[in-house]
Fold this protein.
Amino acid sequence: MATNRTFTMIKPDAVENGHIGAILAKINTAGFKIVAMKLTQLSKRDAEIFYGEHSERPFFGELVEFMTRGPIVSAILEKENAVEDFRTLIGATNPAEAAEGTIRKMYATSIGENAVHGSDSDANAAKEGAFHFSGRETF
Ligand code: CMP
């Protein structure tokens, strides 16, 4: 059964470009409730663990370098059918393939620097949320 939570990060490119407010507004307008949120920065070790499933990919080094170069906003979002609906809201991984009006179409610049993360399954949403937030930080 689908759970009603997903995990997101507003990535360093979108934070650097001043898009935190606009992206959060789109998230709220789409009906997601924020149940945990912080401005933080991943260490190299954090990023290597978080993206562990991509460790054999040719872009892994670039991905870790990018995700650690500045602050991110991490958040847990709640909505019915959260994982799937959030992936629809953010659009395809590659912004060139993302649908009009999606967050990546509007704010991402490349497949690597793609503005936002959205969990790809309920299991990963739970795992990723727990990586970033303690029970006391989640409402
Ligand atoms: P996301 O889907 O949030 O998590 C995995 C990330 O790896 C993805 O976003 C991109 O930022 C990055 N990524 C995926 N494919 C490529 C690629 N071909 N080149 C560079 N980075 C990539």
